[in-house]
Design goal:
The chain is α/β, with parallel strands linked by helices and 333 residues long. It is built from 15 helices and 11 strands. The chain has 2 domains: 199 residues, D-Maltodextrin-Binding Protein, domain 2, CATH 3.40.190.10; 100 residues, Periplasmic binding protein-like II (D-Maltodextrin-Binding Protein, domain 2, 3-Layer(aba) Sandwich). Helix 5 links the parallel strand 6 and strand 7. Helix 9 crosses helix 10 and helix 10 packs across helix 11. The relative contact order is 0.17.
Length: 333
């Protein structure tokens, strides 16, 4: 069959040359402009798919831009300079405002978010956060953890603390310098804290609070989702082998990524990032898309945004999440 396809392709090229007088030109790959956050759960599948040649196999060429938080990534998406973004909790933020359409999940981040404190400034536990300044980026995975942790401790995150809203890199720097007594952040920013913030302690992570888990994954610009579903299905096909390698052979996947796009982390740090999330094969994700689990997880974080006053009357995940693209694509493979 492969030989016959090759022959037909060659025959087609010969006919084209005979008719036009010029050699046939192969169809150019479709370009995708992608924004990403650097962390195993967000851009790991992206780079693994590229290394495996999966984008090339699907006739796709990627152009990428790195962002520090999902807020900036979605702003670029909404502004039209990107086609797709891969982020953490912000996947339940901008799409809930009608800005972007979620269509693909990488993992469930169960322990990515972390809370750190300076004991010498009176912060050793979550309860100690009451009345304190806390550096973080609003609307992100870190903010979700902070809000849920404070709820558990009976502390109102909108009245009983002062959030110092900064880009996450700046928030971590402020904490390391001692300018604030606490920071809500996420892996891999913890590596810098552990190395540079002497005496600082991790007081909690999202694994301590089940409602602090967040979906991470992919959204498309509204017009791209509406008009280029064929391209998004090809993207999902390219994503699948990378996802399944991460889900079933993580040591092999991590070794590949460490040699390519994740040399800035040690293998041990990448293994820590892996353990902070739940990974599933595409076949397993199919059931979670169909039974509404993914929609429920997305709505949990959208509800958080309402609780902290980010917006009112959001679009629900039943509308901003499109599971059909994934289900149709996986069923056809």
């Amino acid at each position: 069959m492969m030989k016959r396809r090759t022959f037909l392709a060659g025959a087609g090229a010969g006919v084209a040359a005979a008719v036009t007088g010029f050699p046939a030109i192969a169809q150019a790959p479709t370009k995708l402009r992608i924004g990403y956050l650097h962390g195993l759960a967000t851009d790991g599948p992206l780079w693994l798919a590229e290394t495996l040649g999966a984008f090339k196999d699907q006739g796709l060429a990627i152009e990428t831009v790195q962002f520090v938080t999902g807020l900036e990534a979605y702003q670029a998406l909404v502004g039209g300079s990107l086609d797709l973004v891969t982020t953490g909790a912000v996947i339940s933020n901008f799409p809930a405002r009608g800005q972007g359409k979620a269509f693909l999940v990488n993992s469930i981040e169960t322990a990515t978010g972390q809370l750190w404190g300076h004991p010498d400034q009176g912060v050793k536990t979550v309860a100690d956060l009451k009345g304190k300044k806390i550096a973080t980026s609003r609307g992100t995975t870190a903010h979700v953890l902070l809000h849920r942790a404070l709820q558990t401790a009976g502390i109102d995150s909108t009245r009983d603390i002062e959030i110092v809203h900064q880009q996450m890199g700046n928030a971590v720097t402020a904490f390391i310098s001692g300018a604030v007594p606490a920071v809500a952040t996420w892996i891999p920013f913890d590596a810098a804290i552990a190395k540079q913030a002497k005496g600082a302690v991790k007081i909690a992570d999202a694994g301590d609070f089940p409602t602090a888990s967040v979906v991470d994954g992919w959204s498309a610009r509204n017009d791209f989702h509406d008009g280029r579903k064929d391209v998004l299905k090809r993207f999902i096909k390219a994503w699948r082998p990378a996802n399944d390698l991460l889900a079933t052979r993580p040591d092999e996947a991590i070794a590949i990524l460490h040699k390519t796009k994740f040399a800035d982390f040690t293998v041990e740090q990448l293994q820590q990032q892996y353990k902070a999330a739940r990974w599933r094969t595409a076949a397993d994700w199919t059931g979670l898309y169909r039974d509404g689990s993914v929609t429920k997880w997305l709505n949990n974080v959208t509800d958080f945004n309402v609780e902290v006053g980010a917006f009112k009357n959001p679009v629900r995940a039943e509308s901003y999440f499109d599971p059909a693209l994934f289900l149709e694509t996986i069923a056809s493979i």
